[in-house]
Design a protein that fits this description.
Layout: H1 5-10, H2 16-25, H3 29-37, E1 41-42, E2 57-58, E3 64-69, H4 78-90, E4 95-98, H5 105-115, E5 119-122, H6 124-132, H7 141-153, E6 158-161, H8 167-174, H9 185-197, H10 202-205, H11 207-217, E7 220-223, H12 238-256, E8 261-265, H13 271-284, E9 290-293, H14 305-318, E10 323-325, H15 338-358, H16 364-376, H17 380-386, H18 390-399, H19 416-424
Parallel strand pairs: 3-4, 3-10, 4-5, 5-6, 6-7, 7-8, 8-9, 9-10
Antiparallel strand pairs: 1-2
Length: 425
C-alpha cells in the first residue's frame, strides 16, 4: 500500500504512527497529512524499529531534542554508553544518535534498537572507520553504501549523510579564509576520501542509490552540513550557503522518491545571525524540518557550552528550528559523562520549550501555567511535580530549610506571595 510515511500521507492513508502524533501534538488529521505530504513534517520510524513511540519533527510540532552518544578509540566502554542511553530517556530526550567510531558498533546499535522507544540516528561514515579502518582512501563506493544499508537493516530511524558536500563546495572552501575549515567529522572523512581518490562525493554522485536504500526501510534522510561553521567568524559564509543550496536541490529529489528529509544546520552562529539562518534554510530547502547543533553563540566558553548552545537553541527554536541537538559542558573538551549529558539535555529541553512558547505551539504554555498556579499557592509538591528536573529542585529545597514550611529561605517571612495571599484571603 505504501513504502514510507510520506507516501502514505500523499495517498491520504492515516497510519497508526500519524494517529499517535495527531493526538500528542494536537494537530488535525487533515493538517498532518497535508504537511507530511509536503515534507514539512516527518515521522522518523524505521520499519524494523518495532517498539518505537512515534514522534514528529517539523512545522507546528513541539521542538524535539537529540542526544549524541557513542564511543571513541580513546573511550570505548559500551556498557557505560548504555547507562547514558537509559538515563537520557529518563531525562526526557526525544532522540538518540549513536556516533561510535570504534569497537563492536553493530552489537551496540542492535541493542539500542531493541531497548529504546525513542528515535535513533547514526552517521554511517563514522561506522565506516570502525568497520573498514582508517585507510580512508581504500574505501570503495560499494563499501560506503554497504555500511549505509547495514544501519538501515539494523533498524535506525534516521541517518546523517553529507550528500551536499560536493566538489564545487570544496573548491569554494579552498578559496575562503575560514578560521576553522571543516569541523564536521563525517564531512571531513568524506572530504579526505574525495581528495585522496580525486572523485566526486559518492553520496552526491549516486544520490538515487541512497534514496532507494532509505525508501526500502522508511529511513529518514538527515542531510548533513559538512561545511557548518565551527566558529562565529565563519558563520553564514559562502561554503555554508553553497552546501545549503545543494541540500535544497537534494531535498526535492528525495521527496520525489517519498523519502522523508531533515536538514542539518549550524553550528556556531552569533545571535544576530540566527534568525537569518533559520529563514535561509526554510526558504532554500522548501520548509523541510531543520535540525541544529546548538547553535553555539560564542566561542569562548568551553566547559559552559551547554549554556552557549541553549541561548542559541532558544532563539533558533523560536525562529523556526524544529530539532535541537544538545550541547554538553564537555563540548570541545572530552567525551561527555552521564552528568555532562544531563546538563546538556536539561539546557536543550529548556531552550526547546522556550522556543515553543515563542512560536505559539499548541499547549506549550499549559505547563508553565500549572507551575505558576502552584507557585501562587505555595504548593511545593505541585511545583516539584511540574519541574523539568524534579531531583534537582527537591535537592535545593532540602538543602536550606526555612523557619516557616510554606516559604523558602530567600525571603522567609517576607515572602511576597505569602503576604499577598494572607491579605487577600
Amino acid at each position: 500500500m505504501y513504502s514510507t510515511q510520506m507516501e502514505a500521507a500523499k495517498k491520504g492513508i492515516f497510519t497508526k504512527e500519524m494517529e499517535i502524533v495527531s493526538k500528542d501534538e494536537k494537530i488535525s488529521k487533515e493538517e498532518l497529512l497535508e504537511k507530511m505530504s509536503q515534507g514539512r513534517i516527518v515521522i522518523p520510524k524505521n520499519i524494523g524499529h518495532k517498539n518505537i513511540y512515534p514522534r514528529a519533527v517539523g512545522e507546528g510540532m513541539k521542538t524535539k531534542v537529540n542526544v549524541n552518544l557513542g564511543v571513541s578509540e580513546d573511550c570505548c566502554d559500551y556498557s557505560n554508553e548504555m547507562i547514558k542511553v537509559l538515563k537520557a530517556i529518563e531525562y526526557g530526550t526525544d532522540a538518540i544518535m549513536d556516533l561510535s567510531t570504534f569497537g563492536n558498533t553493530k552489537a551496540f546499535r542492535k541493542e539500542l534498537v531493541e531497548k529504546t522507544d525513542v528515535m535513533l540516528g547514526t552517521v554511517p561514515m563514522y561506522d565506516a572507520i570502525a568497520k573498514l579502518g582508517k585507510n580512508i582512501k581504500n574505501m570503495s563506493v560499494d563499501d560506503l553504501f554497504d555500511v549505509v544499508e547495514e544501519h538501515c537493516q539494523d533498524g535506525i530511524d534516521f541517518i546523517t549523510v553529507h550528500a551536499g558536500l560536493n566538489r564545487s563546495c570544496i573548491d569554494r572552501l579552498k578559496n575562503t579564509k575560514r578560521l576553522t575549515k571543516i569541523v564536521s567529522r563525517g564531512g571531513s572523512i568524506l572530504f579526505q576520501w574525495m581528495i585522496a581518490n580525486d572523485q566526486e562525493n559518492p553520496f552526491y554522485e549516486y544520490f538515487d542509490r541512497l534514496l532507494e536504500i532509505c525508501q526500502n526501510y522508511d529511513v529518514t534522510l538527515s542531510l548533513g552540513d559538512g561545511l557548518r561553521p565551527g566558529s562565529i567568524a565563519d558563520s553564514t559564509d559562502g561554503p555554508q550557503i553553497q552546501e545549503l543550496l545543494i541540500l535544497g536541490e537534494l531535498t526535492k529529489r528525495a521527496w520525489e522518491k517519498n523519502v522523508q528529509v531533515i536538514i542539518e544546520g549550524p553550528g556556531h552562529i552569533p545571535m544576530h545571525e540566527i534568525v537569518t539562518n533559520m529563514q535561509l534554510e526554510k526558504k532554500l530547502c522548501y520548509n523541510a524540518p531543520f535540525y541544529v547543533l546548538g547553535p553555539i553563540v560564542t566561542d569562548i566558553a568551553p566547559g559552559y557550552d551547554h549554556i552557549t548552545g541553549a541561548i542559541g537553541g532558544a532563539i533558533a527554536a523560536a525562529s523556526g528550528a524544529d530539532f535541537l541537538c544538545y550541547v554538553t559542558p564537555a563540548e570541545h573538551l572530552r567525551l561527555p559523562t552521564v552528568e555532562d549529558m544531563k546538563e546538556g539535555i536539561m539546557a536543550s529541553r529548556i531552550a526547546a520549550h522556550a522556543g515553543d512558547i515563542a512560536k505559539g505551539i499548541k499547549g506549550a504554555t499549559d505547563w508553565d501555567n500549572r507551575m505558576s498556579k502552584y507557585r501562587g499557592e505555595l504548593n511545593w509538591e505541585g511545583m516539584f511535580n511540574e519541574c523539568i528536573d524534579i531531583e534537582k529542585a527537591k535537592e535545593y529545597r532540602a538543602s536550606s530549610s526555612p523557619s516557616e514550611e510554606k516559604v523558602c529561605t530567600m525571603c522567609g517571612d517576607l515572602c511576597p506571595i505569602k503576604r499577598c495571599n494572607e491579605i487577600l484571603e
